[in-house]
Every structure is written in structure tokens, then in C-alpha cells.
Amino acid sequence: MSSRDEVLRRVRDALGGARGTHPAVPRGYARRLAGTDAADVPALFGERVAENRAAVRHVGADELATAVAAALWGREAKQIVVPADLPFGWLAELDGVRAMADRPVIDVDALAAADGVVTGCAVAIARTGTVVLDGGPTQGRRALTLLPAYHLCVVQAEQIVGTVPEALERLDPSRPLTWISGPSAAHGAGAAAPAGAEGVHGPRHLEVLVVED
Amino acid sequence: MTAAPPPPASGAPGPVAAPPKFAAAARVALADTALRSGLRGAAAAARERRSAFPEPADWEDLREAGRAIKDEALLNLDAHLEELERAVTEAGGTVHWAAGAAEARRIVTGLVRASGAAEVVKSTSAVTREIGLAGALARAGVAVRETGLGELLAQPGEDGQASYRDRAGGPSDDPAVLAEAARLRLRERFLGARVAVTGANFLVAETGTLVLLESEGNGRMCLTLPDTLISVAGIEKVVPTWADLEVLLQLLPHSSSGAPMTPYVSSWTGVTPGDGPREFHLVLLDNGRTKALADEVGRAALRCIGCSACLDVCPVYERTGPAPYGPVRAGPIGAILTPQLRGVERAAEASLPFASTLCGACADVCPVKIDIPEVLVHLRGRVVESRRHRPVPTPELVLMRGLAWTMSDPRRYEAALRRGTRWARLMSRGGRIRRLPGLLGKWTDARDLPAPPPATFRAWWSGRRR
Ligand code: SF4
């Protein structure tokens, strides 16, 4: 008997008569925002992003290029990487910053050496202050937002949903997803990690620009 | 993901000497005052971090849903596992089944060998620790690079001499210096790595999707940069549908850190051309889980989503730390899961259900509503039961039988109480009994006993009536 069949046999034996019962799943939890939270979703999103130790700015569509340039200037970024399909307009105001598109594919050493990366996102979640990337338009492949020290993420107001259930409705499970809620942290490392040792792996700084009309 | 320091890795496949009982191992841990104050600090800090965030208004509804989702998964586990296998395979992944730890080690070692890689990067996971994977890979000549910051700082240097902390950048305790040194060093590891080994928090049967939550980003590195990704997960990690994540992705972050979302949540389904590994293997592990599943009360432990909340509120864990619980899982969940996975034949596992005061704090915080005290009491019964069939009865059993004989008759019971009261008052000092004589001494090993009052309640009651 293969291990596959053996494990499945054990499962069936273990469950005996209980096998095949379907307990009702009570779904009384909130699927949408309610009350004051629902009144201004982009504002709630901004607050929660800030609570996640990320910088956040609300900008008008016509200010986006200036805001991108200002953010990169503030980080003293000289060399950045961007997905190949990033709208050219987002980078129109760059001054003294070299932007490298991920086509042809940038090798990992160059990604790791980049001062920053600029992307869009697929969905953002107000309640949790999360941006979700799915490798779709304006986002590029996963390594792009992983290796540079700084990630500047542009979120359009209409991409923001209120809750986690709403986000999952919009997302496609067959795509590789990355949910980002703040910069890389070390508190998961427990007592062994010295306090303040943060940003050892992922980007140490996350900045979000919320574009509203 | 776990907020707790990991128990020491068990490299050896089978222990050479039997592991010590919980009480013996705990005594060693308790004697280490530095460890104790560190643990108290860590648990207190974790509780504080959590309480800094408000509880979602619909928390109880989420817990009820979470409990039911995991029950549905477990009660139909065979069907969900087959569905998962189909979906992962369709998405370009390969599914392997391991009935036990040794088989899982063989599968992973074989996959690494086949890739030709001499080293693997690994992100922390409870299941790889459970099966002793790192040791097996090392014996197979594969260098294992741990990538969690905690492991890196705790791990002795690769040459087995200086610890990382000593070599990081001279004698520095400055967190920023250490972090920078760690970042550079870990980067080197990742950029050259061809094979990675990770765990997973959830396996979605419907879509074949794996989900991993983490704070640091080393998990993202592992599942994005290498050519080959090997994920090892217990069969109980299966959840039925994509929509079920809407509950679990709220429960787990809040219970593990208090924050509404963990910094990084990654999900992947098979392989994606042009993004991430070219090869993906999922190793599904039983290793005793079906034994737990067979126990109608005990199977609740398999609902666990690994949030660590029960560890941070446990008064026993706060004092002993993870080591006495052995390599599987620490804290209250370890006390109910480990004996079920490994059986209660050996003293180490048999003692675990007794490593609790049954205070119930763990059940109150558990996001999937595992009634840990109920399972503990149930398992204590199983331990006693398993001892009953031994040719030579254990002292506890003799004692219990004696008690049953005494208590089944009111006259015998009252006589015993009177006698007991006199003896007990003779033994007490300052109103406390520190040590009971003979075999009963075990009971006072870890606690004092208040001396009984001069007259028993029964004696007082009958005197009052007269
Ligand atoms: S038993 Fe419950 S509280 Fe403890 S780690 Fe598992 S899910 Fe969390």
C-alpha cells in the first residue's frame, strides 16, 4: 500500500461514523464595514497603514508624479527598480533617480542593490491597513518588491475595500499573492531578537500613496 | 509563525535516551533564573502587545466560524486531502505523502539530492522541528541555513565555535548594528540558494493554495527566490475553501500578535511561470495526526492554527519555557497534542497532560475554541487507563483504588478523615505541609498543602446538629 493510501485509510478509520458529517458554519461575522468606519474608507485605510509603521500620504491624481518624486527624494534613492508595465506618468517628475524596468529581467543582485521599488497594487484593505499584490498590472513579480530596501506603493481609492472578506472576494487564488501590512518586522523572532532589530529581510521602509480624485 | 522561542531542535530521529518527564525537565528550566525572568518578560510583553489592539467587535462570531470551519475540515479530511492533491497537481505542483517522520525526512532529503544542491534555506516551522528535518539533512551532507532572525542569533556559528552575536560585527549589542549585519549575511544566503524548505499555515483544498503568515520576510524569500520550493505541512492544516480564509486570516493575526494583520501573508498555488520557483513540492505529513483524529475528544487539538496565544497566557509555560514540552509543540497546546501524536507509553509524553493547573486561561483565548482543559482531563484519564493494563500497577493506580475503596463507604470514609486529620496536623509547620510522606511526597513536589482544620466539615456538621 502506498503511503498516500495508507494515510487516507488511517483518516477514514479514525473518523469512523463521524466521517461525512458537515457541521454548519455560522457566518455571523461582519463582511462589510459599519458605522463611522464605513463613512470614509480611504481615511480609515490611511490611519491603519500608519498604525502598521508605514508612511502614508493622500494625493490627488494630478499630484501623483510629484509625490512619487518627492518620496524617492526623501529616501535619497538614486537607483530604483519598477515593473515593466508601470505607467510612465508616475515617474515623469523624477530628478536624479535612475529607474530600471524589469525587462529584461533584473538579476537578484541588482534587485538587492536597488534603493527602492515603485509599484501599484491589486487590492487594499482599510480595516487592516494592508496592500495586496497579485503580480498583475503595475506590480511585477514578487522578487521585485522583496529585495529593495524601500517599497513605495501606489493605491487608487477605488482599489480599497473595507474588510478581509471583501478582499478575498476580489482576489484570484490562482495568482501568487503577497499581503503587506507594514515593513519587515522582527518581533516574530521572540526573545532571541534584540529589541529594535527590524527589517532584516523584507523592505525596511514601506510608503503608501493613496490617490483620490 | 509563532511568537514563542522555539524548543531546541531535535536532530536525532529517535532519542537515544528516553526524554525526561515534564517535571524533571521543568525543574532544570526553573533553576535557570535568567531563563525564567526572560520568559516572564517575553510572555508579559506578548500580552501587552496584544492588549494594545482592540478586540474586533465580531470576535466571538469569528471564533465560532473558525471552530466550525476546522471541524468541517477534520470530519471530512480524506475528501479534502484528495481535493487538495488534485488542485496542487493541476497547478503544476507535486504532492508527496508521509505516514511518519522518517518517511518525511526521506522524501525531503531525496528531493534536495535530486536537485543537486549542497545547501538549503529554511524558514522556521513547527513541523520541520517535529520531524527533525534539519538534523537529517545535515547527516545527508546538506548544509541547512536557518533564515529566521531568532534562529540566526541563537544558532552557534557554523564552525561550532563563536555564536553569531559574537561574530556579527565585533562585540556589539547595538540592535541596529546586529540587524544590519544579519541582513547582509542572510541576503548572501538567499541570493545563492537553489532550494528552500518552508512550512505553511493553511492548505486550501478547493484551490490547492498554500498560505504562509510571517513578520520578518524570510518566508517570502524562501518561497520566491530559489528554483525549488519544498513545503512540509501536517494534514490537519487543510481548510476546505478559499472563502474560509476570510475567517482564518482574521483569527490568526489577532491571536498571535493582536494586530489586525500579520506583516506578510503569502499565498501560492503550484508554480507561476516567470515568478518564483520552477518546481514546487508539498509534503503532507501524518506522523500521529490520525491517532489524534481517532479520539473524539482529543481531535479538537487538531483545530489548532498555531497562534501561540495559549502559550502567552499559561502560568506553567511562563515559568518553565518551551524545553520541557519536547520537540513537537510547547505550552498548553503541546500538552494536549504531543501525547496524542507520540502516544503515552513513555513517561515524557504521559506526564504532559499533567503539566497544567487547569486554570482555563488557554481555552478563553483560543481563536478556534479548543477546550484545552477538557482535553487535558480526558488525556489524564487515558494515561491512567493505559497504566491499568500493566502487569505491575503504578503507585497512582494503587492509591486511586485504595481511595475508591475508602470513599465508597461512608463509615470507612469518616474514619479515614479523622485519622488523616490527626496525622496531617502532626506533619504541618506554620499551617502548611511541605512534604507528604512516602509516595504521596510526589504530590507535594510542586506544591504545599494547607494543614486541615482540627475538625472535619463532616465532624463539625454532625456536632452542630446534636
Ligand atoms: S491551541 Fe488555540 S490558542 Fe493555542 S496555539 Fe493553537 S489555536 Fe492558538
Automatic annotation (TrEMBL), chain A:
PANTHER family: LACTATE UTILIZATION PROTEIN C (PTHR43682). This is LUD domain-containing protein. InterPro entries: FTHF_cligase-like_sf, LUD_dom, NagB/RpiA_transferase-like. It comes from the Bacteria. Residues 110-211 form the LUD domain. It comes from Actinomadura violacea. Coiled coil: none annotated. Gene3D superfamilies: NagB/RpiA/CoA transferase-like.
TrEMBL record, chain B:
The keyword Phosphoprotein does not apply. It comes from Actinomadura violacea. This is Lactate utilization protein. Keywords: 4Fe-4S, Electron transport, Iron, Iron-sulfur, Metal-binding, Repeat, Transport. It comes from the Bacteria. The keyword Ribonucleoprotein does not apply. Coiled coil: none annotated. Residues 295-325 form the 4Fe-4S ferredoxin-type domain.
